[in-house]
Amino acid sequence: KTISSARLYASALGIYTAFINGHRVGSDKMAPGWTDYLNFISYQTYDVTSLLAEGQNAIGAIVGNGWYSGRILSKNDIYGKDRAFIGQLEIVYTDGTKDIVSTDTSWKSTMNGPYTADDIYDGETYDAQKEENGWSSPGFDSSGWLKTKAATNSSISTKINLDTVQLTAETEEPVEETQEIRPVSVSNPSSGTYIFDLGQNIAGAAKISVCGNAGTKVKIRYGEMLNSDGTLYTANLRTAKATDYYILKGDAAGET
Questions:
Q1: pTM (predicted TM-score)
Q2: Which of 69, 77, 92, 236 is the most buried (most CB within 10 A)?
């Protein structure tokens, strides 16, 4: 039937990015943001009308640690260990009828995706060799994936009471990309090491384009200033590793 509107309501124990038919839902980063897991968890509302198509559709999400199960100062798993995603897709048709697609145990999941590590303080490891093309598109073969389980106080490792915590509409401004900054200079203090100076202190992530053999690992270390010898100063980061790793899949055309 002809769709009048479609909304996705979503949240997570951890941080998530949702996808429909291979397209990213929304533009916000690290949703649902920092949230008081003991009393409430924020949820986001997305207009996904333009992402749906007649016939088969697919929906999915990537879920990471975030503030829920990642490291906060010197502690891990403050609120729990098992991450979880919750979503409800509401489709309203021009004839007034409605369909609702909700997360349940018919959904499937995998722990073998390309994100092999993620932490707000320590950084992220992405192994492009583990990418599964089309995982959020119709027709993907998920036979190797696992059935999910309902997130309850007894079924997952969590320190919050899922029976009493409230899902609450997001009230704070989302984290979003505001601009792309190119380096103002590049130096080479030692063999195989390059310093990219962005000319200002920012909150963000690196975007790289590389070409090389499969399995080659690129290490990206973040810092705010330099030592006198031109190397990266990281003492002020204390125990935070602030390091990303990208492992190439070996695409001859290059990969970003």
A1: 0.94
A2: 69
**pLDDT on residue 75:** 86
Query: Rounded to the nearest 5°, which phi and psi values hold at 66?
Result: 55, -150
Contacts of 244 (CB under 8 A, 6+ apart): 123, 124, 125, 126, 205, 206, 219, 220, 222
Phi, psi of 210 (to 5 degrees): -135, 160
| Contact indicator for 43, 123 with CB cutoff of 8 Å | no
Strand order in the sheet with 98-102: 98-102, 84-93, 3-13, 40-47, 166-169
**For residue 73, pLDDT beyond 80:** no
Please check the confidence at residue 72 and state whether its pLDDT lies above 90. no
The closest of 132, 139, 136 to 22, measured between CA atoms, is 136
Q: Is the dihedral of CA 171, 177, 178, 184 positive or negative?
A: positive
Tell me the one-letter amino acid at 14. G
Average pLDDT across the chain, whole number: 95
Distances (CA, A) of 204 to 66, 75, 120: 15, 23, 11
Q: d(Cα 115, Cα 72) in Å, to the nearest integer?
A: 20
pLDDT of 79 = 94
- Which of left, alpha, beta for 78 (phi over 0: left; psi -120 to 50: alpha)? alpha
DSSP classification of residue 66? H
